[in-house]
User: Fold these one by one.
Assistant:
Number 1:
Amino acid sequence: MTGKKKLILSLGSNCDQEQSLATAKIKLRDMFGPDLMFSESVWTAPIGIESCKFLNCLVFTHTSHKLEYIIKAMKHIERTCGNRKRARTNNIVKMDIDVLKYDELILHEKDWSRNYIMELMKECPF
């Protein structure tokens, strides 16, 4: 894919988890089109907060968008899924989308050592 960069995202929700993930997946497919692959979804214990379990998955795709645009777009999708700052202060995370990798740039380095990330990365097609 000439001109396109590899992109790996992590999705997580601890409130209306299945519906929140489904909504985010629709929005991501609208943005990136058919060149998009979702890993299996896994339930995980919260890390660093007291809350319900999280439902997580990874997204693998290619993009010609710049990183700054992707980050802003992911924040918009989080809000579309019902994410609010006030709820976050109460440890309610309707949707959290992190850019883990953009081309060769690794982001959220601590996340890469989490067991569920390492396990789901086995599904990465690139």
Number 2:
Amino acid sequence: MSVLTINNLNLNFGSTTVLKNLHLAVNQNEIICLLGASGCGKTTLLKAIAGLLPIEQGDIHLAGQCLKSKAVEERKIGLIFQDYALFPHLTVADNIQFGLSKLPKDQQKTITEKMLSVVHLQGFENRFPHELSGGQQQRVAIARALACQPELLLLDEPFSNIDSQTRYTMIQEIKQILKSQNVPAIFVTHSKEEAFAFADKIAVMDQGKIVQFGKPNELYHSPVNPFVADFLGGTNYLNCNVTEDKVLCSPIGEFRLFPEMEVQKGRYRWLLRPEQIILKPNELGLGTVVGKLFLGLYYRYQVEIKGIEIVTYQSQELKIGEQVEVGFQVREFILF
């Protein structure tokens, strides 16, 4: 059963519509990512759920209750900002206890100790925010939000201030914390890598709409349109024809489609992922390396074959101008 449901949500800034007919459902203990470019409406949606922006049309229900008329403080929602919004003059313990002022002191202490244990910061209770690393500050912000026992957690660009060397370690740690507390969460990012690593499901947004919603691997392998395909990874598009007997005819060769594919005869654009392309040095090969970038674990190559330029990633080092044999390891055909 869904903890959060959003139906037909619309929101305008003056004459500009920023959210259009949005529908979304979040289940218990599920982590949802709102993924999209700047200005697509993802942070606006987060603020509307939190109550920081008015709902003009449609409705939002949390744990069966309509939020439309509820003030921010009446919604059992934890909100973690991009800069964590910790109080610099308060200790870690006092930051965590900030939303617990109505509870008896001994209960505040018990909850604080539990939260410190949950986020692995025992012994840090008397430190101040400036004495913590970015990752530790983030965990304090999460502990403060979880201390109030929210029914939903909202995170705005939670990993943008974490350096690249520790980002994936933090993603794994925060995901484990949220799962251990059985709290559903929605987070905003423009990074597909963060979305893939952190989310159970992804809502790709564009111009105020959710273009596609589903599990990360489903979206990657079955994008509904070129926009989603491009946003989720590097792509090559080849014009092709599909015959009645399901043979794909392209400038780089002919390929028999899988029998279970329901594809009509006609013209298509074939999405060929970089990882589906295999290069092998061969003086008689039909491909020529025309571009090369070293990216650490692998190289990004541009290869020209039969007048078509394609992009691929390979761990082997090749030279500009080198002739290569181009092979294909296609596990699915994505046609638009």
Number 3:
Amino acid sequence: MYQLLVSGGVVGLFLQVVPIACLVGVIYAIYRCIRIKKQKISVKWSTEILRWLFVCYLTGLINLTLVPRNFWSNIWALIYIGYSGSQIELFNGSFNFTPVIFKIIAGELSFGSWVKTMFTGNLLMFVPMGVFLPLISAKINAKSILKIAIMAPVVIEIIQPIMGRSFDVDDLILNFIGINAGYLIAVGIKNLSCKRR
């Protein structure tokens, strides 16, 4: 299990942040239950569950994109072997302003398994954001999701080099597509739900 957690693979990175996402989810659930009980708020439980899932997802997303790359690897190393692992380095991120597709066309890079994994991961990572937002808030429409799809990836990419990660134009493009794809899925879900009523 330890080897999987610190492997740096997609599954390992996901498993690293599951505990903190669950912990924040529990804290949020307790907070909401207390608030609902005290203020006697009328709630729609399906929406509350979606909000809870969104909080868990957002916690995981923040930890996968804005926490220093080796932070959770070090935490798990400390838990399993009593050694904190490599030093966390800040302000040493890299920058990529050339989309991968141009590098592939130029013959500088092949569309191998690593590129496919990064493309798929960066796309799918933001699909839930596009799905959750319109389902938990009636205020979210195509115009607002477009703004979010631009701003959220830009803010994340600007912060990443500070946290020892990388600014990558491919991430901006794929995250943007992911959020909008998620929004289209949510619209489809809403339309199906309306037809069944």
Number 4:
Amino acid sequence: MNRHTFTPRDTVACLWNTLSLPLSALDSLNLVQDGDFFPSSFKVDHLAQSTIALSALAAALFHATRNDKSVPRITVSAEHACVEFKSERLYVLNGKPAPSSWGTIGGLHKAKDGYVRMHDSFPSHRKNALRILDLKEGATREDVARKMLDWKAIDLETTAFRRGAVIVALRSFGEWGALPQAQAVADLPILIDKAAEGKPYIGSTKGKKCLSGIRVVEMSRVIAAPVAGKTLAAHGADVIWITSPNLPDLPDLDRDLARGKRTVQLDIKNSEDKAKLLKLLRTADVFIQGYRPGSLAGQGLSTEELVRLNPNLIIANLSAWGLEGPWAQNRGFDSLVQTASGINVADAERFGAGEPARVLPCQAFDHGAGYLLATGVTAALYKRAVDGGAYEVNVSLAGVMKYIRSLGQYSEKTGFGRKDFTKPEDVELYLESRESGFGELKAVKHAARIEGINVGWDVMPKPLGSDEPQWLQG
């Protein structure tokens, strides 16, 4: 679909309508256009403001429904929304700015017949990539670059998918469009399906925030799904973030993304820990998971099994490439989706400096997907309150890519002169200081304001496993 003439408000209205939510709620939305942001030919600023606005409007609608009130006024500034789309890069901890979360050997590399991008933030992905390249641990970026030249880009991509590394070939729009996976990506970025019938159910009505009393179990790593949990927490949900003691973490990202969440460590392959998880899920409202499609089904956590356990549960899934298609089971991250889908090539061509690729100025697909997943969750809460039932929500990074591409590109080089935010000093107006489990944390406030209702985080990041697996209320 061609959405080249859409404004951010048009995007909100369009997606709101596809979710079959009451159109009257749109009258409560105030989008402030206070500048042009993000140097890119793609409309990343549009995506930021519209997705954050959608998540807030859905939360406000649910609040109004369960309290039998009118939807309060929501205000989202374009600048503040864009700042929040870079929140994991703009915090300050104990006076020191956020360090880079990127590994030392990844990024864009020249192959024998093109280019590839490698993701190496997690040790297992780095190790598997080095094995494929026949390199030892401790290899430098120069070592990797030399070995990459022995491979054709598509051959390396195929091998990486098969052997647990995260490497994709750089493609143009045309090359991406020729793949079956491109056709398999859903046309809409939020998919909501009723997983089971049931009676209308609101859940707890305690508390003054939009989602106060809503219980969320989050099992995720890396930006997108954590943004969804963090957003629900900003609106008052009780979010328990479950991590595995057997998997590596990314503390530099977690310092921002863990705001609003209590932290529990469980090994779900251990029967006692699995029982603790199931006990939480039995009385949860929402389960967010960011693993590859079907990954948790082998642990007894399929949609069907979860709904049998809790017939009022909303299951929210975040994937890289979508639910369908030959790439559905492949690993993927924001930067890889940008590379494989033609976004990086198209941005470089529009910039006109002869670069093979140009990355977006933020992790736009991660953040966009996170806010859209939160929107889907809260829309499902509304549907559960009105119609009853359990629901499944699906959002993918590739789906967000497809949507931002449908918005078109700014003409010629006009998009590249837009304002960016590269250091905390650029965004002081939007930062708040709080004491965390790691010291003083100065981080980006949530960009959505709701009239008469406090929005923000009551819990600050703390060491993993600091909390007990039990709900705050009931």
